[in-house]
Amino acid sequence: MPQKHRLENLSRILEWATTFSLIAIPVATIVSLSVTPITPEVLGQKLGHLAVSPAATTAQIYAAVALTLVPLAILLFTLNTMRHLFACYRQGRVLTDSCAALIQRIGHGFLALALAPFVLRPVASVLLTIGNAPDARALSIAISSEMVFFALAGGLITVIGWAMGEAADVASENRAFI
To answer: Which keywords describe this protein according to UniProt (predicted)?
Structure first.
């Protein structure tokens, strides 16, 4: 029983931490976007690897900024799913189908965090360099160690979710016999 008590206490702390993150991250993002001028020069400094066209239109710049918010939305979805999982654990619900589904959803979130930059970075690079001379346009495709980590972690967490689903089924069958 002491393990269950520790699980519930740690889950309570992590539930609060994820709740705080779900509030702090969007607020920090909004503050950052509101105090930082969104110009080709500033965007070029932030993105470093791209020569942003000085002729980039406001629509292109805002579209590129919107693309950078997609991984943030995925992160918030994943954090919210973690918050739900910690709430289940805090309530003592551990080996359940709903917990297994939440774990799988967290794994899918990590996989999406790995794929999003791979898809969005090329789109943003084209958007921001289309106004450059034909020989100065860019299509930036990259795979980072962070993307590989998120993909592997996402795969691992998804598999753990499937295994938890199997364990929840066995636990449910065992409870039915008693």
So the answer is: Membrane, Transmembrane, Transmembrane helix
